[in-house]
Amino acid sequence: MRRDVNGVTKSRFEMFSNSDEAVINKKLPKELLLRIFSFLDVVTLCRCAQVSRAWNVLALDGSNWQRIDLFDFQRDIEGRVVENISKRCGGFLRKLSLRGCLGVGDNALRTFAQNCRNIEVLNLNGCTKTTDATCTSLSKFCSKLRHLDLASCTSITNMSLKALSEGCPLLEQLNISWCDQVTKDGIQALVRGCGGLKALFLKGCTQLEDEALKYIGAHCPELVTLNLQTCLILGRESFHPSFLCNVMK
Length: 249
What we know:
alpha/beta; Leucine-rich repeat, LRR (right-handed beta-alpha superhelix); 3 domains; 7-stranded parallel β-sheet; two-stranded antiparallel ribbon; 11 helices; 9 strands; 12% strand; ubl conjugation pathway; FBXL15_LRR
């Protein structure tokens, strides 16, 4: 929203004077201001951070950055941005979406994993620079991870699933659609350590064989969602209703 003031067009943030900000700071305790800021989106927080030094500290406080979705900025996001965010948020960050951020790779995600060890939901869908090294980092530092989306990260192999199995035992939802290097061996390694899986998306994993479903059925009793679209190697038996019901019993 913009308004004309004495013939000059200004945004609502530019119209906010230092005296106004000083009054608010005096009237409202820091804890209440932080609570108000916690309801703002990423763009608004960044704008508030430019109002004054006091608001810069409040707006960039890690407690305001527990959930971040950078999809709208995907073309502008590079590795250093993710690294800076992780250093700012630290252990406060619980949910991060980097969907479609093509400029983010393993090095930045390693720094992220080291700094944000309480992350629970991570979306890397379409981050094509992501490889097994990222999953190794997540396994080492992010044991609280529950939801992970690696769809279209085509460099992911069985090594990633083995790493997740060893370090992310709380994993409930995993999307590895179109990760076509994954085989039944990777699925076997995954389910042995992540038996609490409730949703598993394997669309486009064209190297999977019938044994993969048997491993899932044997180790994932809580599974309620299983996507097997275009898994061409699977035999007809795998898609028989009685077999699928046994897998997802």
